[in-house]
Amino acid sequence: MENTNQESAKLFADAKQALAEDMEARGIGAVIWDNAKAGFPYLPEVVCHSSKEPGKSRVAQIMGLYRYNGVLYLIEEDRSPVKFKDFWNPDTEAAPTVVTLSEDIAVKDLGDPETVKGYTTQGTLEEWTAIADCYFQALTQD
């Protein structure tokens, strides 16, 4: 059983690494989507467990992915300082469904995810699979 858990953990880590590499190959530092408009068939959510209060958890709705220093972070809607409306001008532009940021702009606009609430690396294989599906669907949005 332990070997199976180790194999699963390795496959999970490899899948997250492949997703980060896909973002890097596309020149994407972050992809942010509007959950209200995106129409994803799966809700991009993860259960986050408290490191300060054992046994306490919450469900975080995810609004995007942020690749920072080779690590892939989930951007939590309503908890992170990221506000979708900050990435377009409502006076001169139509509201997008998805915004992609280059790595340098993502770092400038989003900062270090280890120093701010609202970014997580938590989640199960199933939760990350749904989020990966959202990522690939987001890339096809207008």
Question: What does this 3D model show about the protein?
Answer:
With 142 residues, this protein is of the alpha+beta class. Helices cover 35% and strands 23% of the residues. It is built from four helices and six strands; from the N terminus they run αβαββββαβα. Strands 1, 2, 3, 4, 5 and 6 form a six-stranded antiparallel β-sheet that branches. A hairpin with a 7-residue loop joins strand 2 (45-49) and strand 3 (57-68). The longest helix has 24 residues, at 2-25. The model has no long low-confidence stretch (mean pLDDT 91).
Percent of residues in helical segments?
Answer: 25-40%
Number of strands: 6
Using the CA coordinates, give the radius of gyration. 15 Å
Pairing-aware structural class of the strands and helices?
Answer: alpha+beta
Low-confidence stretches: none
Mean pLDDT: 91
Content of β-strand: 15-25%
Distance between the termini: 45 Å
Q: What characteristic shape results from the CA principal axes?
A: globular
Tally of alpha and pi helices: 4
- Strand-and-helix sequence, N→C? HEHEEEEHEH
Biggest pleated-sheet summary: 6 strands, antiparallel
